[in-house]
Design brief:
Helix content is 80%, strand content 0%. The chain is mostly helical.
Length: 51
């Protein structure tokens, strides 16, 4: 029983760590996207027809 509990807690700990890493990635991606959108909307673009 002790080996099962130890193994189970090991898997739970790994799952919690992966969940925290995934959440941090989602939050960082959202912050980067919002920053990019804010920069894009604040700049004035003049359409001259040339590239």
């Amino acid at each position: 029983m002790g080996a099962f509990l130890g193994s189970f807690l090991d898997y739970v700990l790994k799952a919690a760590i992966y969940a925290v890493i995934a959440l941090a990635g989602v939050k960082a991606g959202k912050a980067l996207r919002e920053n990019k959108n804010a920069k894009a909307s604040s700049t004035v673009r003049i359409n001259t027809g040339k590239r």
